[in-house]
Amino acid sequence: MPIFVALYFVVHFFCSIFRTLISLANNGFTF
Fold it and tell me: Where does the source fall among the domains of life (predicted)?
C-alpha cells in the first residue's frame, strides 16, 4: 500500500472524528 494512500485514510479518519466533536460541541455538550 502506497504511503500516500495510507496517509489519506488516516487524515480522513481524524477529520471525521474532529467534525463529530465539533458537531457535539455545537449541540451544547461540554468537554
Answer: Eukaryota
Cell of 11: 487524515
Per-residue pLDDT reduced to its tens digit, 2-23: 899 999 999 999 999 999 999 9
Residues 6 or more apart from 25 whose CB is under 8 A from it?
31
Its pTM stands at: 0.55
User: How many Å apart are CA 12 and CA 9, to the nearest integer?
Assistant: 5
CA distance linking residue 31 with residue 27, whole number of Å: 12
**31 within a domain of the structure (yes/no):** no
